[in-house]
């Protein structure tokens, strides 16, 4: 039985592991991929204090090493459910069940699907949600990026190192992304913008994407844009399927917590991107993680009183 089981080894989960283990608690971190979460799909980080510029995987490795300094264990596992038995929480994975006195959910989010014809068919064959993973396959090709937020702009700029041209297609005529990212993108000669357009279909041959059908949101006009690849960045969906029966999520699937990162179930906490929050950043996940790491210590101490 662990004092705390942390689900997810992104920046938030690894920070909780550091804080809880440094308080003397036994800690298990369960992760189904490489430690780092979204950091592993991030080329450069320039808004995490202490580092002017650091690659996502380098920061992930530093956080991983740091998280194990005080004895936290990391295991591979795909969590399918959490059972709340009061003083004991069971974390059920595909092939193993772990028991903990408390649980911190740090499972993060995934890039939202756009749900148009061709998206699923061409996933991995021209349709992608990860520029860092797939960008290099598109040397000297024309790429289309869908979205107007930080991810679309940042990843669109990243893709210009490979692509001959990157067309960013946005459904409005104003970007949602941070001003500093907008300014850089507007100056980038390889980037073009198409405003007031939504994608309605992705087409291609048996092998790969060849074009995308766009509809003008003002006139309703439809046009075919030739494209060798389509990168979709239209927001995030929480990874909360495994807690759907616990009643801790809101209507959109994000987990609701109080300022202590506590959910409405005693002993179950949530942090980082998976939480209903106003900002999803590495720094905010780390802040959440430190609060929850300390709070599980306070909670377990209060049970001993
Ligand atoms: P986001 O901020 O939610 O932006 C999603 C974009 O996609 C918006 O521009 C939205 O348009 C558009 N969109 C949504 N649904 C659409 C649809 N069905 N069809 C076409 N377009 C659609 O998502 P994100 O860019 O993935 O960012 C997620 C979070 O991570 C944000 O909090 C962001 O600040 C953070 N992030 C931060 C950094 C950084 O700090 N460097 C980098 C990446 C991400 P509208 O604008 O019209 O709503």
TrEMBL record:
Q: Which UniProt keywords apply?
A: Disulfide bond, FAD, Flavoprotein, NADP, Oxidoreductase, Redox-active center
Catalysed transformations (reactions): [thioredoxin]-dithiol + NADP(+) = [thioredoxin]-disulfide + NADPH + H(+)
**EC class (word):** oxidoreductase
Q: Which domain of life is it from?
A: Bacteria
What does the record say about how the cofactor binds? Answer: Binds 1 FAD per subunit.
Quote one Gene Ontology molecular function term: thioredoxin-disulfide reductase (NADPH) activity
Keyword set includes Oxidoreductase? yes
Keyword NADP found? yes
Assigned EC number: 1.8.1.9
Q: Which cofactor does it need?
A: FAD
Q: Which family does it belong to?
A: Belongs to the class-II pyridine nucleotide-disulfide oxidoreductase family.
Subunit text: Homodimer.
Query: What name does this protein carry?
Result: Thioredoxin reductase
Q: Which organism is it from?
A: Vagococcus luciliae
Q: What is the lineage of its organism?
A: Bacteria, Bacillati, Bacillota, Bacilli, Lactobacillales
Gene behind this protein: trxB
